[in-house]
């Protein structure tokens, strides 16, 4: 058991190291941040001064060593836009993204899970085809397109909800709906597929032959056995809270991490981009680790194999 834990920890550290190296390479070789920072009217002397101030005039290996040393010590550098620590800029936006992401994930689960389970129980029915059609539509429709449609309907035509910003529950409604509908479609399809696999198992047929009612058979016997694959997609959705909200936060001007990432990439704020990407990778790793632990709770066979 301890060997498995240390193996997971080693994988986590190796993944973070690979992500850190990839971020450094992509950001350093994708363009000169000093020219963006200085502006189009800057003189060569001003550009050279800014390069020296931010360390971009040093050799790439020296920049990499400074970068990795800072990460290991918890120092992600300064934002070139606000001249404050990049970690502080990131943490200021985290509450807004967590509020939006967790609310949309909860709504997606509450919508997608029941729809998928009932569709599996009523396979090949009109309800099943209707739910799967809606799921495909919600999953395939781009977030930015759905968000614009909601703005046109509820803000411009009906004047019911604000189209951008934050500060009240009304501001949260449309961004949450945009994220939740696409996630609910994926969860519904996945829940239906998992439930169909379980409902076709012999022990479900045996429970039906013993006279166990349909609701009890579905909730007590089928759902727990279908929960492991469902937990997997929920873990992936949780790990995607930051990256998945970039477009939606930009469309609705939501002051979260996703919008900060888009602005930082545009302004070549390397320190902020690096801390956001590393935090996103860490969130995905933690979500996968939590899913692995839940496997052991939900299925004793997984727990025994890890011992």
TrEMBL record:
Belongs to the binding-protein-dependent transport system permease family. Residues 94-295 form the ABC transmembrane type-1 domain. PANTHER family: DIPEPTIDE TRANSPORT SYSTEM PERMEASE PROTEIN DPPB-RELATED (PTHR43163:SF6). It is found in: Cell membrane. This is ABC transporter permease. Its main location: membrane. It comes from Devosia nitrariae. Keywords: Cell membrane, Membrane, Transmembrane, Transmembrane helix, Transport. It is a multi-pass membrane protein. SUPFAM superfamilies: MetI-like (SSF161098). The chain crosses the membrane at residues 98-121, 133-160, 172-191, 226-252, 272-298. Pfam families: BPD_transp_1, BPD_transp_1_N.
